[in-house]
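Late entry, evening session. Most of the bench is empty. Finally got around to the prediction I had been postponing all week. Sequence below, unchanged from the version circulated by S.P.
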Amino acid sequence: MDELLIIPYIIVLAIVAMYGFHRYVLVYLYLKHKHDPYQPPGKFDHLPKITVQLPMYNEDQVADRVIRASCQIDYPPDLLEIQVLDDSTDHSADIARRACEEMAARGHNIRFIHRDNRVGYKAGALADGIEQATGEFLAIFDADFVPPRDILHNVINYFSDPKIGMVQCRWDHLNRDASLLTKSQAIFLDGHFVIEHTARNRSGRFMHFNGTAGVWRRSCIADAGGWHHDTLTEDLDLSYRAQLKGWEFVYLPQFCAPAELPPEMIGFKQQAHRWTKGSFQTCLKLLPRVMRAHLPLSIKTEAFFHLTNTIVYPMMVILTILMFPCYLSLYNPFNHFTGEWSQFLFSSSLFVLATCSATTFFVVGQKELMGSEAGWKTVFYMPILMALGVGVSLNNCKAVFEAIWSYIYRAPSEFVRTPKYGASGQQSKIFSPTSIYTLKRLALPIIEIAFGCYMAAWIIISIYYQFCMASVPFLGIFSGGYFYVGFSTLHALYNMQKDRSVPVLPQASALSA
C-alpha cells in the first residue's frame, strides 16, 4: 500500500525534474549562441509606413502617458500612424480621447478608435485596428509601456529580409525596485527575456511575440490567419501559427521598452492566471499541429516544453499533497523503502527541485543583464523567488484546469486586465455597494493558507521526530510561499473592503464564435 503513495510521488517528481532539466538546456543554448546576434541584412531605401497600435481598456492611470510617449517616437511623421484602440467602459475613454485630440492638434497622425463592445478583447481590438490601419508594419504597445523614441529606427531595418515576420524587443521595468514582489517579478521576467528568448531565437527554435513591445509585418499576420480570440494569449497563438507558415522572428535584447509590474498580489495573480490559462489553451490548440508538421526534431522538442510548461503547476500541487503521506510512509519502520537511501532520496529530491535549476537559470539571467555582482546577489533572492513560485501554483493550477474546461466545452474565457497604477502609484477606484468578501474571492487565498498550514505541520513533525532534517529549509519555502501569497491576497481584499471600492475590472463578455 505504501508503494501506491511513493510511486506517484516519484513520477510527479520526475515530471517536475524533467522541466527543471529543460532550464539547463535553455541556459546551454543561450551560452552557446549569445554571441551570434542577428544583424539586419540591409537597409530600406525608403522607409515603410508604420502603424503604432495602443490597445487599452479602462486605463485612466496610464492612457495619457503612453499616448504622449508614442507621439514622441522618432520616425518620419508622414510615415507614422498611431491608433488608440480603446475598449474602455469608464471615464478613461474621455482621458484617452482628450489626449488624442491634443496630439492631433499638434500635427500628429493619431486616431482614437473606440468600440462599444469587447468582442474578442485585445485580439478583437487589434483585428479591428488592422482593418483601418494604413501601415505596412504594425508596432504594438500595451498601455502600461513607455515606447522609447528610437525604437522604430532600431528595429525596422531587420524587416529588409522578406522572411522576417516579427521583431520583439526586451521588456524593462519601471518599478523594478518598488517592493519585494516587483523585484521578484523582474527577475522572473528577465530570465524569460534574457535566457529563454535568446536561446530559442538564436538556436533556430520557435519563439513568440509577448503581446507588446514588438513590430509585425502586416502580411505575416494575414498569412497566419489573423488575430484569434479563442485563447487568452493571442500573441503566443499567432506566433506559432506564423512560424508554422514559415515566417521567421527576430529577438533584439539590446533594445528594450519599459513597463510597470503589478505592485500588489491580486494584480500579479490575475496576470499569472491569464498567462497560464492562455498558454495551456494555445498548447491544446496548436501542439498537435506542431507535432504533425515537417519540422526538425529540435524545434518540435522545444515547442513541446514551451507549450506544456504550465503543467508544472498542477504537478507542484500534487507534489505538495503527496509529501505528507510519503513522509509517513518513509517513516514507517516496516516499510522496505525506509532507511538512509529513502531519506537521501527525499531530501535530495527537494534540494534539486527547489534550488539547482532555478538558481542557475535566474543567476545567469541577472548576470548577463546586469553584471556578475547582480548575478550572484540573485542567489540571496532565490528562497523568495521559489516561495513565490510555489505559492502561486494553486492560482495557476486553477488556470490550467480552466483551460482544459474551455477547450473541451468551447467555453468563452474572460480577459481580465492587469490593474495599472502609473506614475501616481494609485489604482483608480469606483464605489462598490457590494461586499468585497465573496466566496469566489475568498476561496483561493483560504486554500493557499491551508496548504501553508499543511506544510508547516510537516515541518514541526520533522523536527520533533528528527527525520529528514535536511529537507526542513525547503519545506519552509513551500510553507512560506503559500502563506505569503494567501495572506497577501487577503490583505489586498481587506484594503479594498476598507475603502468600499474595487479596482476597475472588466465585465464578463461572451466571445463571438
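Two things to note before I forget:
DSSP finds 16 helices and nine strands in the chain.
Residues 28-264 form a domain with the Spore Coat Polysaccharide Biosynthesis Protein SpsA; Chain A fold (CATH 3.90.550.10).
Will write this up properly tomorrow.
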